[in-house]
């Protein structure tokens, strides 16, 4: 099949993928979505078509699929069999593009080397992202591949939003506030002119609330500030990450508790956040359903921090005209949206309860000073669009 774009979002224990067909007028239509997960533990391939019908559901012996590279081989074979050939192009989600990449770029060996050098800046995500890029480059050097970066959308930040108050040598070697979830924000920005024309050209806070959570200050569809910084640990509390943290806590854990980098990584990426606060779960669905007072406290903390950081982002923009919720929690949890709006009532954010219960798109009340929307994100479609655009520019 020669009219297909394959989108890959590869992590350390899972590979998510989608296939889009390129139609007349360069339209993109989603055909297939699937994932290979449980790599190394309980490998499973689950693939559905656009209507949700299951196309494949297979489990594998973990000895046959002990690592991501073997999983890529199995997935590659399934895809080629399903498509009857290679795709027109493959678009990859790559978490880190460093300080230079402000847009998606065609993959070649030099780029892979450059992106490898960024692994220390994103050690949990970058290696997984680069795995399939490297293996396709090795097996099918002519396959057109495009890398799409989660940092790129934020690279236009003014210097103030890009720096820590630390010595220059750290800044020069890349210790900067990059910001992440850029593909999601870029997609939301592309939807605003149609869905929310009255705020698309204005000052908007977009809250990407999913497993990872961050917020972006957007002026006229461009990012000017983000709650995420050097890594995806900054800003809002997340399922298992604490969000913004006094660096003195890390010093204390090292000096007084003898924690090394591996122990800190476990604590900060996997054992903190809503899970730690609630003692119940990292999943907002479970927290909303839980009778435990600590579950309620964790959700209050989440909404409180969203409201606090909205104030900070509004200050970065010199005001605020709109607020947008997106990603798993932002799109589905009406109670969280209500809790955030309640805390931002002083700013003029008021919801229409019926519209909020319907999940939008517009959920603010007629008398609200700030327009509020729910805009479902689609990072894979954003990657497919970029991939096709880079292919056509060739
Ligand atoms: P994402 O990373 O965007 O896929 O978001 C995943 C998170 O969204 C999950 O961990 C849940 O906490 C949350 N989520 C998904 N569906 C719902 C729902 N119906 N109500 C509340 N939270 C939800």
From TrEMBL:
Coiled-coil annotation: which residues? none
Q: Does the keyword Cell membrane apply?
A: no
Record site: Transition state stabilizer? 181, 241
What are the binding positions for ATP in this chain?
Answer: 16, 208-212, 283-285, 328-332
- Keyword Repeat in annotation: no
Major place of residence: cytoplasm
Location in or out of the cell? Cytoplasm
Q: Where is the active site?
A: 150 (proton donor/acceptor)
Q: What is its EC number?
A: 2.7.2.1
Could you say which residues bind Mg(2+) here?
9, 379
User: What does the UniProt keyword field contain?
Assistant: ATP-binding, Cytoplasm, Kinase, Magnesium, Metal-binding, Nucleotide-binding, Transferase
**Which GO CC annotations does the UniProt entry carry?**
cytosol
What reactions does this protein catalyze? acetate + ATP = acetyl phosphate + ADP
According to its UniProt record, which cofactors does this protein need?
A: Mg(2+); Mn(2+)
Source superkingdom:
Bacteria
Pathways per UniProt? Metabolic intermediate biosynthesis; acetyl-CoA biosynthesis; acetyl-CoA from acetate: step 1/2
Q: What does this protein do?
A: Catalyzes the formation of acetyl phosphate from acetate and ATP. Can also catalyze the reverse reaction.
- What is the name of the protein in this document? Acetate kinase
Q: Which organism is it from?
A: Marinimicrococcus flavescens
